[in-house]
Amino acid sequence: MNSAHASAPHTGHYYVPQPSLYPFFLSGGMFLLALGFILQMNKFAPGPWVMAAGAGVIGFVLYRWFGAVIAENQRGDYTGWEDQSFRQGMVWFIGSEVMFFAAFFAALFYCRHISVPALAGMDPAFTLYKDFTVAWPSAGPKGASFTPMGAWGIPAINTALLLSSGVTLTWAHWGLMKGRRAQLNLGLILTVLLGVVFLGFQAYEYHHAYTELGLTMGAGVYGATFFMLTGFHGFHVALGTIMLAVVAGRCLAGHFDAKRHFAFEAVAWYWHFVDVVWLLLFVVVYWL
Amino acid sequence: MNTATHTLDGHGGHAHQPGGLLRWLTTTNHKDIGTMYLSFSLLMFFVGGAMILAVRAELFQPGLQLMKPEFFNQLIGVHALVMIFAALMPAATGFANWMIPLMIGAPDMALPRLNNWGFWLLPPAAILLTLPFVLALFGIGDGAVATGWTLYAPLSVQGGIGVDFAIFAIHILGISSIMGSINIIATILNMRAPGMTLMKMPLFCWGWLVTAVLLIVTLPVLAGGVTMLLTDRHFGTHFFDAAGGGDPILFQHLFWFFGHPEVYILLLPVWGLMPHVLSTFSRKPVYGHTGQVWSFVAIGVLGLVVWGHHFMTAGLPVPALLYFMYSTMSISLPLAVLFFCWIATMWRGAMSFETPMLFAVGFIVLFGIAGLTGLVLADVAADAQYHHSYFVVAHFHYALFAGGIMGVMTGVYYWLPKWTGHMYSERLGKLHFWLTVISFNLTFMPQFFLGLAGMPRRIPDYALQFAEFNAISTVGSFVLGLSQLLFAYNIWRCIKGGEKASNGVWEGTHGLEWELSSPPPHHSWETQPVIKD
Amino acid sequence: DYTWNFPKPVTPIGRDTLSMHNQFMVVITVLFVVVFAIMLYSMIRHRKSVGAQPAGFSGPTGALQWFWVLVPFAILLFIDFVLMGIPAFHAVIEMEDTRTKADMVLKVTGLQWKWKYEYPDSGIGFVSALSTPREQIEGQAAKGENYLLEVDNEVVLPVGRKVRILLTSTDVIHTWWVPQFGVKRDAIPGFLRETWVRIEEPGVYRGQCAELCGKDHGFMPVVVRAVPEPEYAAWVAGKKAEMAAAAAGSDKAWSKDELMAAGKAAYEKNCAACHQPEGQGIPPAFPALAGSKIVTGPLLSPEGRLIPDSHVDRVLNGKAGTAMQAFKATLSDADLAAIITYERNAFGNNKGDMIQPAQIKALR
Ligand code: HEA
Ligand code: HEA
Ligand code: CUA
Ligand SMILES: [Cu+2]
């Protein structure tokens, strides 16, 4: 075996799961969700129903599928070899998520440093926008006016929250490694709570933006990038929180030991990734 | 669903497999999944081909005969999306599923259930792409996406429900490809037989390793781009609207950051396959294994940084133009290495020309035309003339059909006996080859001249001076299309029966995949082989 | 007049492009022939059927072999960055230098699916659209010589002058392309792009929109007539007079019959492609006007002001996010009044009211 991936030569069997209908139904659910959303956006009446059906199928299948994986794991089907595959999978999955966020960061960079200056910098004799000047935040030459979101209120609190959640999660991990289950459980529950509070603050911030600042999705490129970046981030925090809650539940049920706890680590990686994205967001969206 | 009550190691034999349709819906076996990918690909190849035959029929003569321009626009874009995402990419993934575990001595793919999901995402996506055509027949919506496959804003912001369908089709296709890529990377990094170091790994696996990384890096960016498009369409954002400070060109950056690497995503698996075929039929070792590996890596890296050459007439600043021109041209260097290695592999061999070898040679020559014209396109000054003309259409069909599809056909003929245990008909295979190359050139060679003379692409009707070449091209395309029925027939015959294939199939093969029986047992390498030296 | 290569260039940029293209074609043809001659030689000599014995080498060994490996690499480096790279560098600098010593400006605006041209220096402007009759396209009449490459109003430019061309668009991206100029540049909504031409010979030069811009993308040609300076001056004077007459038209009071007659002509030219000659439209993308709620709604508010989302508002200001454009940007007051009056009274709409060009002028 190649030396970079530590595990010794594998002599045993690799666990190939039994045939399963979950993937097929998961795809079917995604199809319905997409179809329903399309119908909904184009104002066809059945839209919401189709969406709900799709979401229901997806939720059910995910619940069962993850359940099956947990059962296989508890039964001891997985050895270090399979574990290695899961780790690889999770790392590359997070890699793809990084690139997804990169697209939106790139859009922010582009609008701020390329398109807005270009719109403001046309040959004065022929410019299409007489009194538009370079500024950031900007809603563009014909955008509505709005108040940008400051960095040092809620966003700063949220930064602190997420950073502490990273700490509590690591603390929980130590607990797991050292066999201190109480520390593990407490750390996880605290992390989940911090995640929930973060989301609560974000919801409040959005409300404030819409009702008082005039800062909406439609507020030019600033509004667009602001809501898409923070929105997708918030969505990831929500997913991460759910995953943490599941892991917390499993810890309470006595799953995992100091050596084998891939699910815990995967969620932790994911959470740290979400954390890092937030730091970037805080700097480039709110602060600078 | 999971009715299993037994086996801790999961290596049940055939007995535990559901039969009939359920086998295919539920399978976690890499060969079954590979077969599904390949069958789906063939089906969609005909669907995408049928669409463009209608287009070619409309272009047979000047004037509008068969369809409205709106419908024409829908056909070309969906043709491209179907061919690229539902025919060519799944074919390569099918190869990967079948062959990578066999080649590296693995029992299966690393993540078998995920593997099944990767496949079963494709049919819903294909339905989303084509459903709007059907809905329009019932008066719902105005048909499929009519923006070309590039979905440029703001045309796509203005478009109808078909754009939304395309956006979600792309999301789902993207998830499928990312899942497939994750699986392939995990398999390659984690499942190789003891002793098979990365530098000893077969080139086909290398081609796919780079492909998979490219997919993971670029597809999410496309997903982000079409998501912005969706919010611009329905949720009031202004990413691509100057009034709000956005820019239509931003979409082009996001699209082509994916779109250019995509062309290497389509061809790297084929470039990985070629040395195997050439070495087999030259009865000689692959030339320059290490050099080719590094070329793949170089192509992958360079491929990520040259996207701007697709919109050089959009008014990029001069430094950007020059940068994109020189970086694009530099991709010819690793490709020259590949061409050199291919020819050096043949050099002083003992060649024979069975169908796979014919296709390989056809591939090299015709892809040479694609690559060399690509090099010319990269020249910013001259590109002002070529851009969005039929010259480009010809260039990329030499790359996509002669490079991609003919590359896939090379692989199919090469491995079919291994997969089915039977030999296909060599006579039909050769007939298929000659009909394909001749009619392919008849279809697309005239398009180079049309482009030079000034015919823009994506037009349903054209000026009179373009008539003769268009007529020739249309005739060629129908012969080309019909010839592909031979291909399908030959495959079908081979599945049904025919002369038994030996384990090695061809005289000059070597590698783990040829040590297993033909067809290989349901579970490939239950105990991993050990590679010595 | 078909050529196997670029059509004859008539600008410095066009000549540059052609010569670069020709050189490049020679280079790649040579490469192609040499590379595949070697391969073909091998395929003939090293066949099993002629008794060839396979060699066993799998990579370069020894200095000589490395030399042969590096030769193609070096050749390509030379081609990419010297032989083709240097002329391309100069050509790009030249192409992008739109402002130095520019004699005049032409502003081009792309619209679905026609071109609007303005001459800021002389204050004239007009819209140029395909003039090939529908019958020819649909095969009910013989196709003329310049099928699809002819327009109602040609752009006229003086020979020998450097014309700086500014491009923009009001709806989607269009691309202004005239092959014989070697010029192709995108017109991007909300932005300004630039290019330039110096036409060296009088003549009529034809091109097309080169970016997919919706259903009639194939039907928006560019026709430029290059004429000697005096003729150009005369043409400008004539255009100015024409525009003055049109302006006068908006001040006079029109009879309903006059409006209907002018309206039918203008409708067929500007609206029928989407809403169809009989106003039946192509739903859902292009709504029907016959019996339309909007068309048969009230004309103006009692105070004579524009009602939001009314018929007049739609025609003047378009509908954002659709192919319905703001026609006040391209049509004269008289045309707008005529079209509105016509739409309200044709196709069985029979509203019986009308609107005067002077009213439109006031609404602008
Ligand atoms: C699989 C598909 C594929 C491949 C492999 C390529 C390969 C290349 N392409 Fe192509 N291209 C497309 C698919 C592909 N392309 C598509 C689909 C489009 C249009 C998209 C759209 O607009 O819809 C396009 C468009 C396109 C453009 C934009 C044109 C325009 O719209 O104006 C450009 C410009 O630079 C370009 C360049 C190149 C280059 C430089 C390569 C290089 O990779 C080629 C490198 C290869 C060589 C240079 C040949 C190798 C050399 C030899 C034969 C060796 C001989 C030499 C010696 C030994 C000395 N391509
Ligand atoms: C892998 C990619 C791929 C492949 C394989 C092909 C294959 C073909 N393409 Fe495609 N094409 C593209 C990718 C591809 N194309 C892309 C990316 C575009 C750009 C789109 C855009 O502008 O946005 C394009 C655009 C394009 C155009 C330009 C349209 C325009 O600009 O107006 C044309 C015109 O001739 C064309 C022709 C063909 C032909 C004749 C084939 C032939 O090779 C097809 C061979 C035919 C068949 C395989 C048909 C077999 C079917 C039958 C025999 C009928 C039986 C039917 C059933 C059983 C259902 N293509
Ligand atoms: Cu305007 Cu195409
Ligand atoms: Cu490219």
Automatic annotation (TrEMBL), chain A:
Primary localisation category: membrane
Transmembrane segments: 20-39, 51-71, 91-111, 184-204, 224-247, 268-287
Keyword tRNA processing: no
PROSITE patterns recorded: COX3
Keyword terms: Membrane, Translocase, Transmembrane, Transmembrane helix
Membrane topology, from the record: Multi-pass membrane protein
One CC-aspect GO term: plasma membrane
Name of the protein in its database record: cytochrome-c oxidase
Residue ranges annotated for the Heme-copper oxidase subunit III family profile domain, each copy included: 10-288
UniProt similarity note: Belongs to the cytochrome c oxidase subunit 3 family.
Keyword Transmembrane among UniProt keywords: yes
EC number(s) per entry: 7.1.1.9
Record CDD domains: Cyt_c_Oxidase_III
Organism: Zoogloea ramigera
Stored InterPro entries: Cyt_c/ubiquinol_Oxase_su3, Cyt_c_oxase_su3_dom, Cyt_c_oxidase-like_su3, Cyt_c_oxidase_su3-like_sf, Cyt_c_oxidase_su3_a-hlx
GO molecular function, one term: cytochrome-c oxidase activity
Localization, UniProt: Cell membrane; Membrane
One GO term of the biological process aspect: aerobic electron transport chain
Automatic annotation (TrEMBL), chain B:
Membrane topology per record: Multi-pass membrane protein
Keywords on record: Cell membrane, Copper, Electron transport, Heme, Iron, Membrane, Metal-binding, Respiratory chain, Translocase, Transmembrane, Transmembrane helix, Transport
InterPro entries from the UniProt entry: Cyt_c_oxase-like_su1_dom, Cyt_c_oxase-like_su1_sf, Cyt_C_Oxase_1, Cyt_c_Oxase_su1_BS, Cyt_c_oxase_su1_dom, Cyt_c_oxidase_su1_bac
Gene Ontology molecular function: cytochrome-c oxidase activity; heme binding; metal ion binding
GO terms classed as biological process: electron transport coupled proton transport; oxidative phosphorylation; respiratory electron transport chain
Gene Ontology CC terms, in alphabetical order: plasma membrane; respiratory chain complex IV
Top-level taxon: Bacteria
Membrane spanning stretches: 33-55, 75-98, 119-141, 161-191, 203-230, 293-311, 323-345, 357-378, 398-416, 428-449, 469-492
UniProt cross-references to PANTHER family, sorted A to Z: CYTOCHROME C OXIDASE SUBUNIT 1 (PTHR10422)
Assigned protein family: Belongs to the heme-copper respiratory oxidase family.
Role noted for this protein: Cytochrome c oxidase is the component of the respiratory chain that catalyzes the reduction of oxygen to water. Subunits 1-3 form the functional core of the enzyme complex. CO I is the catalytic subunit of the enzyme. Electrons originating in cytochrome c are transferred via the copper A center of subunit 2 and heme A of subunit 1 to the bimetallic center formed by heme A3 and copper B.
Record protein name field: Cytochrome c oxidase subunit 1
Classification of source organism: Bacteria, Pseudomonadati, Pseudomonadota, Betaproteobacteria, Rhodocyclales
